[in-house]
Design goal:
Order of helices and strands of chain A: HHHHHHHHHHHHH
Largest sheet of chain A: none
Number of strands of chain A: 0
Largest interface: A-B, 94 and 84 residues
Radius of gyration of chain A: 25 Å
Structural class of chain A: mainly alpha
CATH architecture of one domain in chain A: Orthogonal Bundle
Helix content of chain B: over 70%
Number of helices of chain B: 13
Helix content of chain A: over 70%
Strand content of chain B: under 5%
Distance between the termini of chain A: 33 Å
Structural class of chain B: mainly alpha
Radius of gyration of chain B: 28 Å
Order of helices and strands of chain B: HHHHHHHHHHHHH
CATH superfamily of one domain in chain A: MetI-like
CATH architecture of chain B: Orthogonal Bundle
Oligomer: heterodimer
Distance between the termini of chain B: 60 Å
CATH superfamily of chain B: MetI-like
Largest sheet of chain B: none
């Protein structure tokens, strides 16, 4: 027993230098990754001159809140925030509704042409909206949706569908067929099975799809830029671009806007990390 | 008698048939209810527009009025003769090569470090390395515009100015440097994504195989080379695929950082499309550019999946 303990200790000591090297690399890389974010946040609380000459200094005396009050007292910021919320909510709700119905049909009902329809949908995986901006813009215009939030929401839903369907289909498939049979024997209809058994079971998968769609809707830049001609309809990514166009190299001021957008993103990430990771890796990565 | 009998039979048969028929109708109705709404949105806002651009690419069209100035393949000819377009394609390929050669190995190294084993602070490191993925591309680009600012105010220049004899580098203004700067920003934002995929792949690798190799006397290098990496083959093939596609699909970060400049030295296919097609209202010309981008994507994807990823899939298209 004692010998084994000694052996263990010895083994760990032997490992330590290896781990030290690991820590050194990981800490260096973490610092490199966080440095831009850190300077952005701390800079936003200082004067521009102070920020630019000493980027790594902490805001100590006379913290400059005016960059923040300037933004938060401006109606156009709140207008953009509301627009962003509307677009994100619309994209997420529509995407989940349509994708779960599609995934249900693709996973639990055998019908003629199922694989063909699914394969057609899968083509969409290859094209993010950003490479199809031009034809999508023309289509949105032809449908009279210019300067309408739906003109942003519908294309984002369409481009998000293939990924969402694949995540949900994989999950729906894993639900045992016995459960379905039991439901039918008890007099459940197909739609009833979907609504009352499959959907509640699929909550984690739906949460994953939702987080990915929220990120996509909240961050989209070019599509609203083309579709929404009236600045009153602009979401936050356009708002911050306009702001940085206006104030150029008054970096401290621009970084205040950036910080305001980073804070909810970080909180959202910390709350939903599990679901984001599940969504991206098809449920393979845990913890 | 015979007539009655057949009458009874056919009556029962009718009943079965009508019951079946009713169920079929019910099923068809359910299927339609499930797939029609989603597929309509998909066709209207994704598939039809993409096919339409094939047609637009044959016209000289400013986007207003009817399509009538048919020019055949002229837009394509103009594109292929355009020096800026040629260099844009080349830049896209350069970003792709750098992604495969630098970004993926970095992601793999980090996944091996934090992906498993007992390491204090594992989750914290994972969170930090992955978090840029959730920042919007606009935010990313704005922050990095400051970090890489060509003047002596930019963060990188401030840091490096501590080195004696360092001369301010125009990270985003020097045409020989700008593409590398952009690649650094793309790596900052996206390598965490690949790392997460590798971590998932690593968890699927059984410890037993590695331990067996260690018992047989293999050192860590060999275990990695001959056991771990081959077992992660499907994940690696997937990330290579996503990374190549992603390299051709970068737009927002590059546009906000440089708009393709200085003098087109960071122009890629997507920024070229936006600048010369959409902004200038040369929609036919832009559509031709989009078609080339689609063609590259499609040919590559089909080829890659048929040849390289064939072994991995029963599931994805």
């Amino acid at each position: 027993m004692n010998n084994i303990m000694q052996l263990r200790t010895f083994k760990n000591i032997h490992r330590l230098p290896g781990n030290l090297g690991r820590y050194l690399i990981l800490i260096t890389l973490s610092l490199i990754i966080m440095a831009p974010v850190f300077t952005a946040v701390s800079g936003s609380l200082r004067t521009n001159g102070d920020f630019l000459s000493k980027p790594f200094a902490l805001p100590h005396e006379n913290i400059q809140w005016q960059h923040y009050t300037g933004i938060l007292e401006d109606n156009s910021f709140w207008q953009s925030a509301v627009n962003s919320l509307l677009i994100t909510a619309g994209v997420t709700v529509l995407n989940i509704s349509l994708a779960s119905l599609l995934a249900f049909a693709f996973s639990r009902i055998k019908f003629f042409g199922r694989e063909i329809v699914f394969n057609i949908l899968s083509i969409g995986l290859l094209f993010p909206v950003v490479v199809a901006l031009l034809p999508v813009f023309i289509q949105v215009r032809d449908m009279g949706l210019i300067n309408n939030l739906w003109g942003v929401i519908f294309p984002l839903v369409a481009f998000g569908l293939p990924g969402s369907v694949i995540i949900l289909r994989t999950f729906f498939r894993a639900v045992p067929i016995e459960l379905e049979d039991a439901a039918y024997i008890d007099g459940c209809t197909r739609i009833g099975f979907f609504r009352f058994i499959l959907l509640p079971l699929a909550r984690p998968a739906i949460a994953s799809v939702a987080t990915l769609q929220i990120i996509a809707g909240w961050n989209e830049y070019f599509l609203p830029l083309l579709v929404l001609t009236d600045p009153k309809k602009w979401p936050l990514p356009l708002g911050v671009m306009q702001y940085q166009g206006q104030f150029g190299t008054d970096w401290a001021r621009v970084m205040a806007y950036v910080t305001i957008l980073i804070i909810p993103a970080v909180f959202f990430y910390l709350m939903t990390e599990k679901y984001i990771v599940t969504g991206l890796t098809g449920g393979e990565l845990k913890g | 008698m015979a007539a009655t009998r057949s009458g009874i039979l056919s009556g029962a048969g009718e009943k079965i048939v009508s019951e079946r028929f009713r169920r079929e109708i019910g099923k068809t109705f359910t299927v339609l209810l499930c797939i029609v709404p989603g597929m309509v949105v998909f066709f209207l806002f994704l598939l039809i527009p993409i096919f339409q651009s094939a047609r637009y690419s044959l016209y000289d069209w400013n986007g207003f009025g009817p399509l009538q100035n048919y020019v055949g393949l002229d837009n394509y000819r103009l594109l292929f003769e355009n020096k800026v377009f040629q260099s844009s394609v080349q830049h896209s390929f350069q970003i792709m090569v750098m992604s495969l050669g630098i970004q993926l190995p970095l992601a793999m190294a980090m996944a091996l470090m934090v992906g498993r084993g007992k390491l204090f602070g594992r989750r914290l490191f994972r969170t930090i390395l992955f978090i840029p993925f959730v920042f919007s591309e606009v935010i990313t680009a704005i922050i990095w515009r400051y970090v890489l600012h060509p003047s002596s105010d930019g963060l990188v220049n401030v840091i490096l100015s501590n080195i004696p004899g360092y001369d301010t580098v125009g990270w985003l203004a020097d045409k020989d440097v700008v593409l590398y700067s952009i690649f650094a920003v793309i790596t900052w934002k996206y390598f965490g994504f690949h790392m997460i995929l590798y971590m998932a792949g690593l968890q699927a690798v059984s410890k037993d195989h590695e331990d067996a190799a260690r018992i047989d006397g293999a050192d860590e290098k060999r275990v990695l080379r001959y056991i771990t990496l081959p077992l992660m083959g499907s994940t690696i093939r997937l990330t290579v695929f996503l990374s190549i596609l992603g390299s051709f699909q970068q737009l927002v970060i590059i546009w906000v950082l440089t708009q393709g400049g200085p003098v087109n030295s960071s122009q890629v296919i997507t920024t070229f499309l936006y600048k010369y097609g959409i902004k200038n209202f040369k929609l036919g010309y832009g559509s031709a550019t989009a078609m080339i981008l689609f063609a590259i994507t499609l040919i590559f994807s089909i080829g890659y999946q048929r040849i390289i990823m064939k072994q991995d899939y029963g599931d994805m298209a």
